[in-house]
Amino acid sequence: MKPRLIILCLFLSCLTTAMAEKVKVRIFSNNTISAVTISFDLGQYNVYANDSVLLESTLGEGATLTLKPAAGKVSVASDGYNYGSFDKVRFQATDTACILCINPSNVKQRTYEGDLIVSSKQNTLLLINEVEFETYIAGVVQSEIYGNLTDIFRVQATISRTWALKNINKHIKEGYNFCDHVHCQAYLNRCVRPDIMLGTMQSSGVTIVDSEGRLIETPFHSNSGGETANSEDVWRNALPYLRSVQDTFSYRMRQSDWTKTMTKEQWLGYFAKKHKLNTTDPAVCDSLLSFVQLHRKARIMGVPLTKVRMDLQLKSTFFSVSYDSVSGKVTLLGHGYGHGVGLSQEGTIRMAQLGISYDSIIRHYYSGARLNVNPDSPKNYVENYIQQIEKIIEDDKQRTTQVKSKKDDWLGRLFRVRDREEREEIYDESKQDNESDWQFKFGETDTTGTSSGQQSVGSSQQ
Predict the structure, then answer these.
(1) With a threshold of 0.85, does the pTM exceed it?
(2) Containing H/E element for 263?
(3) What is the per-residue pLDDT across 196-226, written as a single tens digit (0 to 9) for each?
(4) 205, 275, 337, 359: which is deepest, by most CB within 10 A?
(5) What topology does CATH give the domain 23-131?
(6) What is the distance between the alpha carbons of residues 334 and 314, in angstroms, rounded to a whole number?
(7) How far apart are CA 100 and CA 239, in angstroms?
(8) What are the sequence ranges of the domains in the chain?
(9) How many Å apart are CA 239 and CA 159, to the nearest integer?
């Protein structure tokens, strides 16, 4: 008889407290939410109001609740019945394979795993997703980068994990750890791609540190345009691992080049009005109309390029100026997208396509930094989980023409397969799946002694 297999808690839930066990992320943080409908895509939820049970173990697939702000409280209703108004409402998952569909009245719906905490402030709902740390990281990776190679996601997961751990208390005074927008890292949905989760799992317990073993800041951006920027040219501090590096890997990618055209009067007028430059002086005028950056500069005529970028809504600070005296048009010939400091995501994609290893990619963009592996990361658990995801990816390649239902969601599939393995049954894909098939108990220990239940501004658009 084969050893009992531990029921896996979602995405490294058995990591030690050296890695955050759960995090709270404010979702829809840039939106005013006047009403939201909550439905349940997978699993069952208990609902608590003011820390007391409102609905217990009755909310599963097909059930919906509507929440609205009401005089500083949250009103809860379903099918025309109003349960009342409360200071705080909490949707608590009954197991780790639970998925919530969150549909605000004025924003595109999203799905998340884990718990949801809802409160009200100034006629808007505050929605906080409390979720396992590695589940959050996988959602960030999916939101922040594109591609189809596992090492791309492995790199992004490593830098996103490092940033999150270093900035774990960024919003703590507001009652949560992170927001879901570029102020922190984008987190716009749960991870729905097994290849992204595979890259996240392959980097489990890995962070980036400096020569003294301290977590570094790991900013990233869409495309460097061919050369990254020194940190002090964009922000205040000069950091030894955020040095400008040549980055030919960012050439000929989606965001490699851009242009912006305006009149001579608009271009010169901006510097005259905003920065008090004497544009009637021929020397000043000529300098502004013939500005060239073969390599990144920090200023134009003493004006910070970061300020110019912000005011004129440019994709980057890495641009040169071309003036056509016949048409009177000024054209900014730009390269890259984002602040330019740290890792270029499109450069990363190109390097991965060329077969460059994920650790070499990280060292290319963060000068002198090194990778640190958490010694408490459960190696056997991670390897077993990786093998399961690899099998699902391979199975999906053989089922490209099959229409998938919610029950074919890769996460649900994984847990149902593991559940049947636990009961020493053979998984038959033709067998009808019921909700009871993926509900199981947690906190058990397998024969290896591994127990369950444990456990930059980074955005590309900044």
Answers:
(1) no
(2) strand 257-263
(3) 989 998 998 899 999 999 999 999 999 999 9
(4) 337
(5) Tumour Suppressor Smad4 (2.60.200)
(6) 9
(7) 41
(8) 23-131, 257-335
(9) 16
